[in-house]
Amino acid sequence: MIRVLIADDQALVRGGLQMILSVQPDIEVVGMADDGAQAVTLARELAPDVVLMDVRMPVMDGLEAARRILSAAADQTKVVMLTTFDLDEYVYDALVAGASGFLLKETRPETLADAVRTVVGGEALLAPAVLRRLVDQHTTAAAPAQPERLAPLTQRELEVLRLIGRGSSNQEISESLWITEPTVKTHITRIFRKLDLRDRAQAVVLTYETGLVRAGEVA
Fold first, then answer.
1. Looking at domain 2-125, does it have CATH number 3.40.50.10420?
2. pTM for the complete prediction?
3. Helices marked H in the chain — which ranges?
4. Alpha-carbon distance 49 to 131, whole Å?
5. pLDDT at 219 over 50
6. What is the domain class of 137-209 according to CATH?
7. Spans of all domains in the chain
8. Fold match, 2-125 / 137-209
9. What are the pLDDT digits (tens) for 131-181?
């Protein structure tokens, strides 16, 4: 059973998300918070698998709450940011902090449940088109930093990581590099272990920070 904590300062949104998720046979809503501070407290007490976190909340905003939850939860809890706009300025910072992606609040009900399952499986919620705009906006003027972080990777692992940064799925990586999907997954596991990455979202951010993928390169 996937355990979910919902954090949003609007009661209507919280109730709607709970209603959508509660009918799923493999998902349980274990708690709801109406501000970031309460979200941090409940995450500590309930140890959910996924926190659906609104970006803008009183007392403590969603970004700071996400940082605190992720710094304390190791790999146990995934955080997905909820936002009204796909170019919300805080979303990129949330990805850097370790969030597994973001969802628009207008997301369709069937997509929401699939999204929760996706992040639990170690994937990231980053549509390539939105990813391009989001990361380009924050990295256009920035010089590549810390390229030495990629030194532990083999040439093949660098190729896989570059494709992850471009928003490719495992299947697309498999087809591009002419290797099987199980082999792709093996490479990704090794990459994450060597670079101390939580998931694909952090991997994408790293490809930009190190210059492995350049702003404007994602199709």
1. no
2. 0.75
3. 11-22, 36-46, 62-73, 89-97, 109-120, 128-139, 155-165, 170-177, 181-195, 200-209
4. 24
5. no
6. mainly alpha
7. 2-125, 137-209
8. no
9. 656 666 655 545 555 678 899 999 999 999 999 888 788 889 999 999 999
